[in-house]
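Q: How do we represent a protein-ligand complex in a form that can be generated token by token?
A: Start from the inputs.
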Amino acid sequence: MRYSDEAVDLTRDEITQMQTRLLRETVERARGAPAYADRLAGVSTADIRSPEDVRNLPLTTKQQLREGQPEGFLAVPKSEVVRMHYSSGTTGLATAVYHTRDDLYRWSQVVARGMLAAGVTENDVFQNMMGYGLFTGGLGFHYASELIGCMTIPASSGNTERQIHLMRNFGSTVLHIIPSYALRVLHVCEQQGIDPREDLSVRVIFVGGEPHSEQLRRRIEEGFGAKVYNCYGLSEMCGPGVAMECVEQHGLHVREDHYLLEILDPDTLEPVPPGEPGEVVLTTLRREAMPLIRYRTRDIAHVIDGVCPCGSEHVRISRIEGRTDDMLVVRGVNVYPIQVERALLDIDEVGSNYLITIDRPADLDRMTVAVELSPEVFTDDMRALNALRERICRRLHTELDIGVDVQLHEPGELPVSDGKAVRVIDRR
Ligand code: DLL
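Then emit the structure tokens for the protein with DLL bound:
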């Protein structure tokens, strides 16, 4: 029988009612976790009459999760836990996240909903090019794809030549991949004389796990001749699937029957209106093993107002515009790495990789952007290269409001990762 998911059709009223009930249940369950027992002692679930009443509950931070390690946030007996993941810990110590069997099934459901919304069916061949293991990117999509009934290729990340071989040999139609790695795959295809548009069958690509710009999405779409859909998530909320784009590719629908979304001003912690960027704060609504209340993700996004033409009334958020902790202050100016990417990829001659380095010679911040050029334009003509470098400097200056040193590199010269890309080295 074909897998389907009715929750996608919930009306706004139904979502509100469901969230109110699930929020009460979440609070009751969370009391079972040592880290929440005291903090929720004064909360009466009878006082929760709408999803907005979440504001009366305490916030949860990454620091508290760390302090609660290894089991402070575990709300069920350990015998009910069937798996744990360990968050990537890119910004500090990693934290364990636990799942019951039902947690894992519901996680598959939310990801499958996003795959179905992008038109994936049991006739597709799904090549999962995200790391399998403690990182949630691989396993998060794996079970969703099997739930739908796709032939699933658990390729994991890395070994680009083999990835290309698998795509060709088995006719992969759907991919899941880190966006910076997708550009790397395109680059290797080019080196091997393979035209992905002609020689591969890929039609849908899910990307996520790291910030990326609209320009980067378009490059992947053009390179593969496929539609690219953004998928957001974090280990603390299970992993991928918290919010995913539909065919409209205009905002990511938050799975509101699983997650309660708030967008807060990170300083005042007051809600911001739709359209205004703020910190994404999420409450799990169905999680058993590790319910999290008002978890501060540190990701910045805004709510897109209005109902999506796809018909789903689940609220939409913009792509992640930055993190409260990846903002760089360079000579007193706030800079987000994603701004650099946006500016660079507006320039056709810029290739698939870049690296930002900040140092402080003679007590003054210096920002250097190393940029790979695309293979077609790479030349030995110094005058042409200098003119291009000047153009990139000017574009970055307009975007960032500060002067930046630019270094041009040959294609393939900068370090690459098959996991999340390292875009910034701060040597100050
Ligand atoms: O990256 C889960 C994931 C895997 C999501 C694969 C989508 C696809 P963590 O390793 O815990 O989990 O890292 C979570 O990555 O807080 C964001 O800062 C960032 N991130 C995840 N997805 C996106 C996205 C996974 N689509 C952290 N756009 C999050 C921008 C993203 N940033």
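The longest helix spans residues 12-30. DSSP finds eleven helices and 21 strands in the chain.
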